[in-house]
Description:
Distance between the termini: 30 Å
Structural class: alpha/beta
Order of helices and strands: EHEHEEEHEHHEHEHEHHEHH
Shape: globular
Strand order of the largest sheet: 1-2-3-6-7-8-9-10
Number of helices: 11
Oligomer: single chain
Largest sheet: 8 strands, parallel, barrel
Helix content: 40-55%
Amino acid sequence: MMISHLGFGASSLGSVFHETKLNESIAAVEAAIDGGINFIDVSPYYGYYKAETVLGQALRNIPRGKYYLSTKVGRYGEDGHNTWDYSAERVTCSVYESMERLGLDYIDLINVHDIEFQAALPGGLQKVVDETLPALAELKRQGVVRHVGITDLQLANLKWVAERSEVVESILNFCHYCLCDDALADELDFFEQHGVGVVNASPLSMGLLSQRGVPSWHPAPRPLVEACERAAAYCAAKGFPIERLAMQFAVSNPRIASTLFSSANPVNVKRNIEWANEEPEWQLVDEVKRILGNQQRVTWANT
Length: 303
């Protein structure tokens, strides 16, 4: 797949961050396609199936040849409760359920979602290798899906599975190629050597790199939050929103196939596309990194 350097993450369509309007969500997807984005990522987990349902409505008026669609299996939810099931039977059913919600007859890229949660379940990550991925490979053989990948916050888990399974064609990692944490860069050689494509996500590090600041649920430790607040204030004083700098930086590495951002607001979508097509202000990047100091590359557990 030759995907755009900026991708549209559809989590916002599931009202994950705040309540969204259907007409605006549809307009946001259309703005992404009109702006040159051809890669859309979603999951049944986002909004507990709402994101896929809304995205399916948006895709009705968009020619199938204009985008690649990525969705996921393994992580779900009902009535505000997270659920996980990486069994072959469940992930196979999940693919067909997603296609029905999305109104599609095949999926371009199917991802095993947040594999670190299976690491804590019976069978551990070995189950992903022995059961989950082979089930998806069978769907690929049948033409139901075109490509197979894995996603996680923890880079070590992605490497562990990619090293043990020839099924893995891509990885999606978030919050590890952004202004406050570029650890993903250290692993690009590994993934290239294994023939695995790399997708980056969350250029704003789930709100850390924003003027609005982090939501109450953000798992980042307080010293990192405070360092990012200082960096945001510094950029604002220079009349340069930290969100703009963060977007510029996140898409700057040509070895990363695409960087996903999410918004259900068409105005924000257009603005992010403009920022992503700008050359980074490298001097300001260096100044922000000095402000962050020893809080760079500080990570956290998934939630």
